Amino acid sequence: MLKDLRINNSLTGKKELFEPIHTPHVGMYVCGPTVYSDVHLGNVRTFLSFDVIFRYLMHLGYKVRYVRNITDVGHLVNDGDEGEDKIGKKAKLENLEPMEVVQRYTQDFHQVMAMFNTLPPSIEPSATGHILEQIEMIELLIDKGLAYEVGGSVYFDVNAYQKDHNYGKLSGRKIEELLSNTRDLDGQDEKRNPVDFALWKNASPEHIMRWNSPWGAGFPGWHLECTVMGKKYLGQTFDIHGGGMDLKFPHHECELAQSVGAHGTDPVKYWIHTNMLTVNGQKMSKSLGNSFLPRELFTGDHPLLDKAYSPMTTKFFMLQSHYASTLDFSNEALGAAQKGYRKLMNGLKTLRGMSADGVSEAELNEKAIQQINSLCDNCYRAMNDDFNTALTIGHLFNLLKKINSIHTGVLSIGEIGTETFDRMKLTFETFVLNVLGLKEESNVDFDGLISVLLNVYKEAKEAKDYDKVDEIRNGLKAQGVVLKDMKTGIDWAYEE
RNA sequence: GGUCCUGUGGCCGAGUGGCUAGGCAGAGCUCUGCAAAAGCUCGUACAGCGGUUCGAAUCCGCUCGGGACCUCCA
C-alpha cells in the first residue's frame, strides 16, 4: 500500500510527509463545539473533514487516538474581558441549569454527527471535567513568570512569553501589529497588555458557572481547556491538532503559547485548519444569521432552500471539495451532489450483485487491467495528498465506469481477471464506505412498496388467477408479511 | 488599515510548469415494447494586461473582482 501521506501543516505552511511521533500510534486533537446552541452546517463541515482524516489514518493502519472536546464553559459572549458566559446566558434565558443546556446541545450534536455517519472520537472530554488540571497549569505558568494575577483573575503575560518564544508563529502575526491594531479601550482593563489573554476569570456574584480556585471563585479562560486536555490524553507533544480556520487566531495561537510556556516544547507536530462553508460567498456563521441547522436542511424548511437535502447528499457535497478550500453553499450544487451521490450508491448496489466466482476465462484486456489498477492507486494517491477527497471521488467515478461496463456487459470479469476485479471491488467499497464514510440512504418507502404489490394481488384475485395470488401471498409471507382479505379491503400485518 | 487566501467551461469543483480530473446540466450515438439506467463520443475553461520559459491555468509583476482573520465563532 502506498503510505507516503503528506499533510499541509498550517504551522509551516508546507505540505509535509506525515511521520507520527510514535508510529503506529497517532494522536489527534480537534476542537469540538461549544454546546450552548445547535451546531450549524458550517460547524458540521469541519467535523466531517476530520472524520475522514480519522478514518483514513486508521485505514492506513495507524492506531489513532482521536480526542475531540466538548466546550461546556468559558466562552464569553462579548469580546474582551466583560460579558457573560454563553452557556450561563442561555441557561438564564431558558431558565435552565447550565448543565441542562450543556446536556441538551451535546446530545443534539451527537445525534447530528450520527446522522452524518461520523465515527465517535476515542475520547470526548469536557472542559468542566478538567478544572483541576486547568488550575494546575495556571499555577505552573505563574511559577514560570508567564502569568499574573489581578483581582481574582489570571492572565497570560504575552510580553514575558515573547522574550524566549514567538507569540504569533502559528497565525503569522507580529506582536507589534497586534498591539497597534487592538481597537478599543475595554474600560477598566486589568491586563498589563491588551494582547494578554485570560487563563482564569474572577466570577462576578451573578455568574452562575463558578469554581473555587487559589484566586477565588471563578471560571477558566477560553483557551486553556484544549491545552490541558490535549496534554492529558495525548501527551506533551502529539501529532495532529485541528480545527476551523477561524480558530487559528487567537484560540490556537494561545493554546500553543500556553503549552510552550508551560512545558517548553511545541505541543503539536502538524496543525490542520479546515476552511469555511460560505453562503453567497460569505462565511456561514450564527452571528451573520446565514446559517442553516442540519434539521432545516433535511426538511427543506428554510427560506434559502429549494427543497430538502439528505445527510448523505450534504456530506457528499462537502467531500467534493477539499477541506482547505472554502465551499460555497447553493441549491444547484446540492442538487448536483444528490445525483452524484446516488450514482455512487447505485455503483455500490451493482457491485454487491457481482462476483468473480465461476467466471469464465477470457483473453485478458491488459489496457483495462492497467487502467483499473492505476485508478485504485490513484485513490490512495489522492488521499495521501493532504486528504484530497474531491480528487478521490473523481477517481471513484472513473472506477464506477468500469464497474458499470462490466454490469452492462461491455467489459467482462474474465477479461480483467479475478485479481483485478477483486481489487477494484475492494477499493471502491472501502473508499466509499470506510474512508469517506458514506452509507446507503434508502428513500424507498416500505408501505408504498407493499401497496404496489397489494394492487397486483387485488387484480390477480379479481381475475381469479389463484396461482398468482398464492405466489404473492407466499412470497410476502416469506418476508414476514401476511395478507389479510378484509371486507373493507386488503390489509397486511407482520406475521405473528 | 494590517496579515493572508482566492478568481477555472452553463453550474459546482480538483489540478500549482508539459500528461483525460470528476459531478451536474447540454448535444449525438448504442441499447430499448415504453421508460430508465448504463456505455461511448463531443464542447477546445482557466478574471484582465504584461513578463519569465522551448512550453504557464500553474512562476513573477501590475490591474480589477471576491473572501477570511485581526472580537465569540468550525
Automatic annotation (TrEMBL):
Q: Which reaction does it catalyse?
A: tRNA(Cys) + L-cysteine + ATP = L-cysteinyl-tRNA(Cys) + AMP + diphosphate
Could you tell me the superkingdom of the organism this chain comes from?
A: Bacteria
The cellular location(s) given in this protein's UniProt record come to:
Cytoplasm
Where does motif 'KMSKS' region map?
283-287
SMART domains in the record: DALR_2
Name the predominant localization.
cytoplasm
Q: Where is the Cysteinyl-tRNA synthetase class Ia DALR domain?
A: 378-444
The entry's ATP-binding residues are 286
Q: What is its EC number?
A: 6.1.1.16
Q: Which UniProt keywords apply?
A: Aminoacyl-tRNA synthetase, ATP-binding, Cytoplasm, Ligase, Metal-binding, Nucleotide-binding, Protein biosynthesis, Zinc
The biological process GO terms on file are: cysteinyl-tRNA aminoacylation
Q: Does the keyword Ligase apply?
A: yes
Task: List the InterPro entries hit by this protein, alphabetically.
Answer: Cys-tRNA-ligase, Cys-tRNA-synt_Ia_DALR, Cys-tRNA/MSH_ligase, Rossmann-like_a/b/a_fold, tRNA-synt_1_cat_dom, tRNAsynth_Ia_anticodon-bd
Kind of enzyme, top EC level?
A: ligase
Q: Does the keyword Nucleotide-binding belong to this entry?
A: yes
NCBIfam families from the entry?
cysS
Q: How does it assemble?
A: Monomer.
- Which family is it part of? Belongs to the class-I aminoacyl-tRNA synthetase family.
PANTHER family, sorted: CYSTEINE--TRNA LIGASE, CYTOPLASMIC, CYSTEINYL-TRNA SYNTHETASE
The protein's name: Cysteine--tRNA ligase
Q: Which source organism? A: Reichenbachiella faecimaris
Q: What is this protein's gene name?
A: cysS
